[in-house]
Amino acid sequence: MDAAAWTPWAEVALQVPLAYARRGQTLAQAALAGAKRFVELRHYPARDVVDTRHATRAYYHAHDGATRWGPDQPPEHGHFHLFWDGPQPDMHVHLVALALDTRGQPLHWFTTNRWVTAGRWEPAAALIDRLPTFALHTRGRLAPLARWLTAMVHLFSDDLAALLQARDAALAPYTRHQRLEAVLEDRRIDILSHCSASLPARLQRLGLT
Amino acid sequence: MKTKTTTLAQTLTALLVSTSLVAPAAMAQPAPKADGKPAASSAGNPCAPGNPCAPGEKKKKKKRTEGDNPCAPANPCAPKR
Fold first, then answer.
1. Where are the domains of chain A?
2. ipTM of this model?
3. Could you give the angle at the alpha carbon of B29 between the alpha carbons of A42 and A40, nearest 5°?
């Protein structure tokens, strides 16, 4: 893909947080959807952002943010979980999570073991095939945030493909000794792969800045 | 193309400057438990909810049947059928 193809996604990925910042808000604050209290594990918004047309879903929440990425990394304020919804409530598929710092800057993309989000498990190849169709649209105050998440997925799509492949590769050593089903429910295994979500670094690598 | 690249670079600079001027967001507070003590928040903690990151379920509308008494006091401790 040439640089021009990435440009529309890059514009949205920059302009949405810039518009928030000009109003004195970070993406991390916008993600709280106007909630007065930010409580660990609670979903923001409470019923998630759900796009029935594209069968996608996302929400923001926080837990273990101060320690998740180690002492030499900025603390995580919270993270988005992005899903494809299935035909029934428990048939969702987790695509990826995106961690933000306290100023709303994207920190890390990461994947998790199935027990963390429940739902169906799809191999990396199937998720990568569906990446180009990912879209999350909503109305109201969270519409810009949904556009930003969509743009981020597309802007980082080849990184995400590698991340999903790394996710499956991380499971491989476990599945030599246990059934995949048992590994996917193993509570000792949570984050399976992660990579940088730094926008400046990504834009530079794409030759856009 | 060069103009576009310059614009993106400028937007990125503007974003970095603007973001640095915004106050950092407050970290999440521990979820209160029913007894007022903070709940365990770690997914690795045995007291954490089973699927801490599962999507939220749709709010189910309570169906009223003829036998229900809509004005009866709630009984939160009744076993679920």
1. 3-205
2. 0.89
3. 25
- B35 Cβ contact partners less than 8 Å away, ≥ 6 residues apart: none
CB contact under 8 A, B31 and A41: yes
Core vs surface per residue A22-52: b (16+ CB within 10 A) or e:
eeebbbbbbbbbeeeebbbbbbbbeebbbbe
User: pTM score, two decimals?
Assistant: 0.85
Task: Closest CB to B8: pick one of A10, A47, A117.
Answer: A10
Across the interface, whether the CB atoms of A112 and B53 are under 8 A apart is answered yes
Q: What is the biggest distance separating any 2 CA atoms in chain B, rounded to whole angstroms?
A: 73
What dihedral do alpha carbons A140, A142, A148, A154 form, nearest 10°? -80
Greatest Cα-to-Cα distance within chain A, rounded to the nearest angstrom: 53
Q: What is the rounded distance in angstroms from the CA atom of residue A156 to the CA atom of residue A135? A: 14
Q: Which residues pair with A108 in a beta bridge?
A: A99, A196
For B2, name the nearest residue in chain A, comparing CA atoms only: A208
**Pairing verdict, β A56-61 and A44-51:** antiparallel
Who among A14, A42, A59 is closest to B31 (CB)?
A42
Quick: pLDDT tens for A53-80. Answer: 999 999 999 988 778 888 888 899 999 9
Which among A17, A18, A118 has the least Cβ separation from residue B51?
A118
Rounded Cα distance, A191 and A195, in Å: 11
Contact residues for A159 (Cβ-Cβ < 8 A; gap 6+): A109, A195, A202
